[in-house]
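Late entry, evening session. Most of the bench is empty. Finally got around to the prediction I had been postponing all week. Sequence below, unchanged from the version circulated by S.P.
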Amino acid sequence: MRKDRSKKVLTALILLTLAMIWGHSLLGREASSEESGFVMKLIAPILEVAVGKGNVTEHLVRKLAHFTEFLVLGAELLLFFAWRRNRKDALLLALAHSLFAALTDETIQIFSGRGPMIQDVWLDFFGATVGASITLAFLFILQKKKKSSRND
């Protein structure tokens, strides 16, 4: 019963994440730029620590958004598929679904008046790979801790 509830919650999170990703892609060029500018003002002080004062651009914010959104999606998909399959298959399925989501994302941008960019697909896929890999490593650590606590 608990696993079923967790799967439903995770499915809802995946759908919400996809809605957020694809919803942003539906925005026209002007609305998207406005949104990026707003976010840039919020996070510039934090990013300036890493990239230097005055070096935070709308382009950087957009690319970080791509990476971060897909990092979350990759983690969610890995968890979803890890319930039903072995971890190697779960990783492959999570990455395949993430790639499909990234391709869909850029395709949507064709219809919203923004140009699709192949480098964004690669960035999205890299974000999903990082998210899924971190999650997979976390699952392995949890599994080892469970085994060692059983042996104690």
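Two things to note before I forget:
The chain has one domain: 2-151.
The radius of gyration is 18 Å.
Will write this up properly tomorrow.
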